[in-house]
């Protein structure tokens, strides 16, 4: 039995291009709650290390 998944087209309701995905996007709103202020260089290094490992 062969796998024909590569030949299947997405349903018409699904976006197929980046432009279509972006067109359907919604603004995230106020992002101030995610602002991190006054990090020391060591804290900043630790923050980005954690993100890289996630």
Provide the descriptors you would attach to this structure in a database record:
54 residues, mainly alpha, elongated
Task: Describe the overall structure.
- It is a single chain.
- The chain has helices at residues 18-23, 41-53.
- The chain is built from two helices and no strands.
- 35% of the residues lie in helices and 0% in strands.
- By secondary structure, the chain is mainly α.
Helix content class: 25-40%
Strand % is under 5%
- Order of SSEs: HH
Radius of gyration, taken over Cα atoms and rounded to an integer in Å: 20 Å
Quick one: overall form?
elongated
The N- to C-terminal Cα distance equals 38 Å
Question: Would you report the number of β strands?
Answer: 0
Oligomer category: single chain
Estimated structural class:
mainly alpha
- Average pLDDT, to the nearest integer? 80
By DSSP (H or I, 4+ residues per run), the number of helices equals 2
Largest sheet: none
Unreliable stretches (pLDDT < 50, length at least 5) are none
Describe what is shown at a glance.
The chain has 54 residues and is mainly α.
């Amino acid at each position: 039995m062969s796998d024909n998944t590569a030949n299947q087209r997405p349903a018409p309701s699904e976006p197929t291009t980046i432009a279509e995905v972006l067109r359907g996007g919604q603004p995230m709103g106020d992002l101030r709650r995610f602002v991190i202020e006054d990090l020391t260089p060591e804290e900043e290094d630790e923050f980005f290390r954690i993100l890289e490992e996630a």
